[in-house]
Amino acid sequence: MARPHLVGPGLLVVVLAALVVGCLVLDARSTDAQRALYVSERGVVSGAIGALVGCCGAAILAFRPRHVVGVVLAVTGAFWALDGFCESYAVLGLHAQPTLPLTGLAYWVVSEAGSLLLVALPLVLVLYPTGRLPQGRWRTVAVAALVMAFALPLSLVLAPDSAIYDGRLSDDVVRLLPQISLPWSNAAAVATIRVGQVLTMLAMPLAAATVFARHARSTGVERTQLRWLLWAAIVCLLAGGVMLLDLNGPVGFGALVLALVATSISVVIGVVRPDTGDIDALVGGTLVYGGIAALFVLVDLAVVAGAAAVLGDRFQERQVTVLVLVLAVAAYGPLRSWLTAQVRRRVLGRRGERYEVVSALAERLEESGGLEQQLPALAAAVAEAFRVPFVRVEVLGHGGQGLAATHGAEPAATRAFPISYRGERIGSIELPDGGIRGMLSRRDHVLLVDVVRQAAIAARSSLLARELQESREQLVLAREEDRRRIRRDLHDGLGPVLGGVAMRLDAAGNAVESDPATAHRLVVQSRAEITEALADVRRLVHGLRPPALDDLGLLAAVEQQADRTRAAGLAVTVQADDLASLPAAVEVAAYRIVSEALANVARHADAAHCTVTLASGRADLAVEVRDDGRGIAADVVAGVGLRSLRERAEELGGRYEVVCPPEGGTTVRAWLPVGGRE
C-alpha cells in the first residue's frame, strides 16, 4: 500500500474534532427544556456522527487522494458536524439575552439546509466503489435517483417558513431565519414538500438497485468491494429491526450508531483495502446469525406477551428478566447450536462439515463405476454440499477431448475452478457466480480444494485405467500388425526370392556339365537375388531395432548419429557416463529421441552448436539435447517430431519436456525409467 497523505486528511480530522468539542461546550450551557422549546436535540449527537463519517472520508483520502467517494464522505461528515454545531449554537443563541449573532442562520442550517444530508447516502451508493456513475441504462437510473434525492431538500429550502414550521416556533424565532422562499401559497408548498418526501425516500431503493446491478456485472476486486457494501446493508437491515423495537430508546440509538459505524468502516475498507478479511464468510455469517438472533427475539416477545396475557398485572419487570434468563440458559443454549446448524445447512449447505462432505464424496465415488458415472456423482455431491442450483464438471481425456456432467440448470454467470493432479490440469468445475450461495469464503475454498482433490484422484485413476486399456489394445494391434507385416514381407518378398534361387540352383546343377555357360549365368543371377534377399532381411531387422545399438552400443550409436549431423555443418558434443546394463526398450527410446532431436535442430533451429547429454541414474536415464538456436515461438503448434518424442518417453512411463531458456536456444529433456540398480 502506498504511503498515506496526512496533511489534508489530518486537517479535516482536527476541524471535526473542534466542531465536536464546540458542540459539547455549547450543549452544556443549554437545558433539555430549552432544547424542547426550540424543537432541537443535543448537537453533539449530530456532531459525533458527522465526525465519524468525515474521519472515514479522511481515511480514504489519505490512501486514495482525490477519490470521489472519499471527497463525498469528507464533505458530508464536515457538513453533518457543522449541522450539529449549528444546532447547539442556535439553542444557546435563542435563549441568550441578547440573542447571539447569526442565530437565525444557524437554526436555518439545522432545520432546512440540513436536509441536504439526505442526498449523501444515494450519492455514495451510485458512486461506490469507483467514484464514477454506472455504465449503460443504469447511469440513467443513478441520475434519476440523485435528482429525486434533491426533491425534499430543495422544497424545504424554497418553501415559506410558515408552511414548514406551522406554529411550532414563535414568530420571533421565525423572523430571525433567512428568507429564501419562493412566492407561493402554503398549501402549494406543503403539497410540494409531501411529494419531495416521497421522491427522496424512493431515491434510496433506486440507488440501492444500482449497487446490485454493479454487483451482478462486476468481477474481481470490484465485486469484493461491492460485497463490503452488501454486508453493511445487511447490518443496516438488522439494526433497523432493532430500532423498530426500541424507536426512541437507548437500544435503538445504539443500533443506529452501529449501522452508521458498520457502513462507514465497510466503505473505507472497500475502497482502500478490499482484501482485508474474508468478506464472503462475513456476509454469510451475518445473514445466518442475524436471522437466528431475530428469531430468538421474536420468540422472546411471544413468550413475554403470552405470559403477560395470562398473568396480567402480576407479571412484573423482574419476572420478565428471570423468564428470559431461564429461556436463555435452559432452552437457547442447546437450541442455538442445533438451529444454527439447520439454518446454515438450509442456506449454505454443508460447507461447515468438511470431514463429512469429503468422506461422503469418497464413498459416493467408490460406489460409482467408471468416469461416466463418477462425474454426475461428483456434480450432485458438490451441489448438495454447497447448496447451489448448478454444478458442471468437465474432465479432459486423451487428446484434449472432454467428458462433462451437469447438475441443475445453468445460470447466467458461472465461475470455473480448475481440477489439477500433480500440477497438470485435467478438468474444471463450474459453480454459480451470484447470490449468497454463490459466495465462497476462504473456508469454502479450502473445502472445494479438498473436494476437487478427491475428484482429481478419482478422475485421474479412471483416465489412467481407460488409457491403460487403450494402450493394451493398441499394443496388441501394433504387435499383430507387425506380425502381419513381417509375414507379408517374408511370404511375398523373401519367400519367392529364395524359392526362385533354389530353382535356379537346381537348373544350374543340371546344366553344369552340358552347358557350363548357362550354369554360370544362373549361379550369378542366384547370387544377385540372394544379395537382395539379405538387404530385405537387414531392412526387417532394422525396423525391429536399430542395428547400431547391437553392433556398437548406445553411446557409440549416438556418436555415429552425431557424426551424420556434423556432416551437415552443425557442431555436436556428446557427453555421457556409464551406460551399461540398460534395458533394450530404453536404449531404443533414447536413440530415437536423440536422433529425432538432432534432426529437428539441423532442420529448424538455425543453431551453431548442440550438446547431447546422457546421464544414467538408479531409477532413470536422463536424455538432454540442448542447442543455441533461435528457440521455439510460444504460438508454434507441436509437430509430428515433437509429438513422437513425447510418445516415446510416455510409452515407457517416463517424462518429457521442451523448454526455451531466457538466454536462447531450445532444450529437450526426457527421463526414461530403467528400474532400481544395485
Question: What does this protein structure show overall?
Answer:
It is a single chain. The protein has helices at residues 7-28, 32-37, 43-63, 68-95, 103-111, 120-127, 137-149, 151-158, 161-165, 171-176, 186-217, 220-245, 250-272, 279-311, 317-348, 354-367, 371-386, 442-511, 516-544, 547-552, 554-566, 584-605, 640-650, and strands at residues 391-396, 402-407, 414-421, 424-432, 571-576, 609-616, 620-627, 655-659, 666-673. The chain is α+β, with helices and mostly antiparallel strands. Among the domains are: 1-111, no CATH class; 117-214; 218-276; 551-673, Heat Shock Protein 90 (2-Layer Sandwich). Strands 5-6-7-9-8 form a five-stranded mixed sheet. Strands 2-1-4-3 form a four-stranded antiparallel sheet, covered by helices on one side. Helix 12 packs antiparallel against helix 13 and helix 12 (220-245) runs parallel beside helix 14 (279-311). The longest helix is centred in the C-terminal third of the chain and has 70 residues, at 442-511. The chain is elongated and about 160 Å long. The relative contact order is 0.04.
